[in-house]
Design goal:
The structure is a single chain. This protein has 196 residues and is of the alpha/beta class. The protein has one domain (12-193): Maf protein (Alpha-Beta Complex). The protein is 32% helix and 23% strand. The chain has six helices and seven strands. The protein has helices at 19-27, 50-66, 94-104, 140-149, 176-180, 184-193; strands at 12-14, 34-35, 73-83, 86-87, 108-118, 124-135, 169-173. Strands 1, 2, 3, 4, 5, 6 and 7 form a seven-stranded mixed β-sheet that branches. A hairpin with a 5-residue loop joins β5 (108-118) and β6 (124-135). Bound molecules: thymidine-5'-triphosphate. Thymidine-5'-triphosphate (TTP) is lined by residues 16-18, 20-21, 37, 42, 61, 77-79, 81, 90, 111, 155-157, 159-162, 179-181. Thymidine-5'-triphosphate binds next to α1, β3 and α5. It catalyses: dTTP + H2O = dTMP + diphosphate + H(+); UTP + H2O = UMP + diphosphate + H(+). It is an enzyme of class 3 (hydrolase).
């Protein structure tokens, strides 16, 4: 019997500017063929809740990049830190980071990770993963030390669990990688599901 020609899998494009997402993919042995960040407006819509916000942005990032890569599989994600219904901002300055830390201190909050995979045939696969994170009460010294570290910069909710902030986190329930930026179990399932 004639051998079937093996068809090459479509290239995988990671639609992200986050070095964390690239590192997380590498951790599970996945190397995208290209990295092409999406440049979209990430502000929440009026009254938008955290979970639909994470889902909408993951889809929007994937769609924006897919337009530039016909024939590729595009992976995008979005991480949203939420205190109840309130979406915390990405901390770009000290004042914002301080506000976030004050809100998180001694409380449980949720991290929603939206993941979207778009295939060349137009299939859109989406997951939103939820992780509960509880901070201990932050002393004035801890807040000052953390602000001085600069680790909050560019992070949703003003902290990064993969760094110093781990010392202040009392409990996490759910996916750790989701908090860092990409839920690896769900991402692997999506990639495997489309034949990668
Ligand atoms: C809560 C938390 C967030 N983060 C980071 C992950 C994301 O980079 C960032 C959330 O912002 P995102 O908008 O999800 O991602 P991004 O703008 O950095 O990258 P892109 O949109 O191009 O993919 O916060 C951590 O690194 N550790 C944490 O513990």
């Amino acid at each position: 019997m004639a051998e079937q020609p093996t068809r090459a899998a479509p290239p995988l494009v990671l639609a992200s500017a986050s070095p964390r997402r690239l590192d997380l993919l590498a951790q599970i042995g996945r190397r995208p063929d290209a990295v092409d960040p999406a440049d979209i407006d990430e502000s929440p819509l009026a009254g938008e809740l955290p979970r639909p916000h994470a889902q909408r942005l993951a889809i929007a990032k994937a769609q924006a990049v897919a337009e530039r890569w016909p024939g590729a599989i595009v992976l995008a994600a979005d991480t949203v830190v939420a205190c109840g219904r309130r979406i915390l901002p990405k901390a770009e300055d000290e004042a914002t980071a301080r506000t976030c830390l004050a809100l998180l201190s001694g409380r449980r909050h949720r991290v929603y990770g939206g993941v979207c995979l778009l295939t060349p045939t137009g299939k859109q696969l989406v997951r939103v993963v939820e992780t509960a994170v509880t901070f201990g009460v932050l002393s004035h010294q801890h807040v000052e030390r953390y602000i001085a570290s600069g680790e909050w910069h560019g992070k949703a909710g003003g902290y990064a669990i993969q760094g110093l902030a781990a010392a202040y986190i009392h409990q996490i329930v759910g996916s750790y990688s989701n908090v860092v930026g990409l839920p690896l179990y769900e991402t692997e399932n999506l990639l495997f599901g489309v034949g990668l």
